[in-house]
Amino acid sequence: MILLCERCYAPVDPAADRFYRLAHIDHSDADGNVFWRHTVVHVEACPAAGTVDPVEQHGWAA
Ligand SMILES: [Zn+2]
């Protein structure tokens, strides 16, 4: 699964990037069960959205 930073939308590499995992409440059902939506966000300040080319950042092949 590809992780995308919730703040800058750049890919997060679990092996190389420092990131926090966040849990947001998605919804609950009639029985009171809560469904969670898990996201990640970079620990360091993010670059402005759209300024990072994932291929340049990580050397990934297209
Ligand atoms: Zn980010």
TrEMBL record:
<protein>
    <submittedName>
        <fullName>Uncharacterized protein</fullName>
    </submittedName>
</protein>
